[in-house]
Design brief:
alpha+beta, Immunoglobulin-like, Glutaredoxin, 3 domains, 18 helices
Length: 690
């Protein structure tokens, strides 16, 4: 019976993940440059594809003849029209195909093809079929397709004349584009140059590679793994290792049965922790996780939780799980068998919650950047590290005898974690403080508190401070001395920050430099700053780093960029965005970058998490999710999501006078050289176009 239940649970779990097996990564729409034409007119047929993230569509022209399937269109002959010229792909991007070992052209995010036809009769009938292929960046999967298309909304009158251009889109008709067979012309395009339409961005900017940073994902997974290892030495978890192995020793079981139980035990721990991440991701969704990261109530709650646990670790009081629930679950564990193994894992997770919840909460909050898969992967990485020693000692229970006995050293670990959690509680309070502009925890105050906290931690490690639960330390061990040296070195590193030092190593964990009351570094820095055209909106509570002058409203910034004949540098950022602060401290501060931002661009910072409510006349309903956008942050986030198909920060976009994107958007990458190249490519394109 138990095996049947476990099988059904696994089947349901994998069913939720896999969903349908029929994939349709490209959605096509048809439109024309005019839907009212006259005999003799030329009309442009527009084939447009919306491509899922991490997928790409092959273009209709590239020189790799023995390579992948090109997009190909075939028009059925009819006396009512004539083809004019060849099918034109609109600015595909270059890609080297490792499988076919040749250079190809592809589309990401969106793809567009155009074909001109001349209308020669009133009974216009334009039909045909197309072949195309889309492939995945993630697993290399490719999907070919062949479909028919028909343009049925173009109305023709008998007289010749120029038809008025009224762009329309047939949303009910999906089509795919196909190329002329001999259109194999090499065109080098640095980026997809697309137009924004008026004050809102046209939804034709590619997402894909620029918004997805694999290095960043791997680094976060490593952090989650290390957090899982850190949780093992907490006083609530470490004593559970011998207790757990005792459970596996009490039965006279065969070695084979012991290995089986150990594997089930390890997977149960991973499943229980990973389920929490999955639940958060599914319930909150893509936008919900991003809003969660800067929600004032949640961040204040996490801050209080960290404070409470810090006080508990200092010995002020003890936090335990509800004893009735623990006892009931423990009774199930005593039954043995597969059920007992699972409930033993559940008991471990429940009892260890007082030490692991703060760490798990940090992992989930770090992952709340608009991703659904990321929290699941992070929780898997965390729980995998957490489960390793328990599974290992369940395999080899006799090794438990070699572990050090719990005692005074574990209390020292607990107190040390208390100091660290006390420092971290300020981080979460700062997020809410910045998002709502309370002004309670500016950068200098935060640094001063951290200096005191880590200074006290250093004294504790040297034995100069002792808590009631600590045992007497007669001698100072070498590891403890080395740790104290590291803590005092870190404390001294913080001191110059009181006078405005950037503290680049901590850029993502401290309030921005703009909140510093006395920035001696800025006062002594002589630099030319960019000039603005008029007084920037929201400048009373929003600021740019390093003395830069700029805007916080897209329309106002675009008008100034046109007036100054400069490209517009758009910075999609957030108060709670750790990577944004790192980019500003490490990359923006570099003289090569700062000089260019000051002199060559008009800068606009669009905060996607700002909670300032706008006047009611500025509210609007989003085309993306149908919700009314009332705050400055939600409108900026909608601008990015609805028009750029991207909701990650930081995200940098360069646009020209007519709102063309000048270079491939840039995301989190701390390389100064790459960022300079990004700025230079935008400047070069601007000069070519204007």
């Amino acid at each position: 019976m138990l095996k049947r239940i476990l099988f059904l649970l696994l089947l349901s779990f994998f069913g939720l993940i896999s969903q349908a097996q029929i994939l349709s990564p490209a959605k096509w729409t048809l439109s024309s440059s005019s839907e009212s034409v006259k005999v003799g007119d030329e009309v442009e047929l527009i084939f447009k594809a919306t491509i899922d993230k991490n997928w790409y569509l092959y273009s209709s022209e590239f020189l790799c003849e023995d390579g992948p399937t090109k997009t190909t269109i075939t028009f059925n002959p009819h006396p009512s029209y004539q083809l004019v010229g060849k099918l034109q792909p609109i600015k595909p991007i270059d890609k080297h195909d490792d499988i076919f070992e040749c250079d190809v052209k592809i589309f990401k995010g969106t793809g567009e093809f155009r074909q001109k036809v001349k209308v020669v009769a009133t009974n216009l009938k334009i039909e045909g079929n197309y072949d195309y292929q889309v492939c995945s960046d993630v697993d290399g999967k490719c999907i070919p397709n062949n479909e028919d298309f028909s343009f049925s909304k173009i109305k023709v009158t008998g007289k010749e004349g120029k038809a008025e251009a009224i762009p329309t889109i047939d949303n009910n008709q999906q089509a795919v584009i196909i190329p002329d067979a001999d259109s194999a012309k090499e065109v080098k395009v640095a980026a997809d140059v697309t137009q924004f339409n008026g004050p809102t961005l046209d939804k034709s900017i590619l997402d894909g590679e620029a918004s997805y940073n694999k290095d960043s994902l791997w680094s976060i997974l490593i952090i989650a793994f290390l957090a899982g290892l850190t949780a093992l030495i907490t006083p609530c978890v470490f004593p559970m290792i011998p207790m757990t192995v005792t459970f596996f020793l009490k039965d006279n079981q065969s070695k084979r049965q012991g290995i089986k139980n150990a594997i089930i035990f390890g997977f149960s721990i991973i499943a229980l922790y990973t389920f929490a991440g999955t639940l958060f991701a599914v319930l909150l969704g893509t936008d919900g996780l991003n809003a969660l990261a800067t929600n004032w109530a949640l961040n204040l709650f996490i801050s209080v939780i960290f404070l409470v646990f810090a006080l508990s670790f200092f010995g002020l009081f003890e936090i335990t799980a509800p004893y009735k629930l623990v006892n009931k679950i423990d009774q199930q564990a005593e039954k043995g068998g597969l059920t007992g193994v699972f409930f033993m894992a559940f008991t471990l997770v429940l009892i260890s919650f007082s030490c692991t919840v703060p760490i798990v909460g940090t992992v989930l909050t770090l992952s709340a950047g608009g991703e659904i898969l990321k929290p699941v992967l992070m929780m898997f990485s965390y729980s995998f590290a957490f489960a390793l020693p328990f599974t290992f000692f369940a395999f080899f229970p006799e090794l438990i005898k070699s572990l050090p006995k719990s005692g005074g050293w574990l209390n020292s670990v607990k107190v040390t974690l208390g100091f660290i959690e006390l420092a971290l509680c300020l981080k979460f309070f700062s997020i809410a403080d910045q998002a709502y502009h309370w002004g309670l925890l500016d950068r200098d105050i935060n640094i001063a508190l951290w200096i005191v906290i880590f200074g006290l931690l250093g004294l504790y490690l040297l034995g100069k401070i002792r808590f009631s639960s600590d045992s007497v330390m007669e001698t100072l061990s070498v590891p403890r001395l080395m740790l104290a040296i590291g803590v005092f070195s870190f404390t001294l590193y913080l001191v110059p920050g009181l006078w405005g030092a950037p503290l680049k190593m901590l850029a993502g964990y401290l309030p921005p430099l703009s909140t510093h009351d006395f920035d001696l570094i800025a006062l002594t820095r002589s630099q030319k700053t960019s000039e603005v055209c008029d007084e920037p909106k929201y400048a009373d509570f929003l600021h740019l780093p390093h003395g830069l002058k700029g805007y916080y409203d897209y329309k106002q910034a675009l008008a100034c960029a046109r007036q100054q004949n400069k490209p517009l540098f758009i910075d999609f950022t957030g108060h709670g965005c750790t990577n944004c602060r790192e980019m500003e401290a490490v990359v923006w501060s570099d003289p090569q970058v700062l000089q260019r931002l000051q002199n060559d661009f008009v800068v606009v910072a669009l905060y996607v998490d700002d909670k300032t409510e706008l006047p009611e006349e500025l509210w609007y309903t989003s085309k993306y999710d149908g919700k009314v956008k009332k705050t400055l942050g939600k409108q900026n986030a909608d601008l990015q999501i609805n028009n750029l198909d991207n909701n990650a920060q930081p995200f940098y976009v360069l646009v020209g006078k007519d709102e063309r994107v000048l270079a491939w958007p840039y995301s989190y990458d701390r390389s100064v050289d790459k960022f300079v190249q990004f700025l230079e490519s935008g400047k070069k394109k601007y000069k070519e176009l204007y």
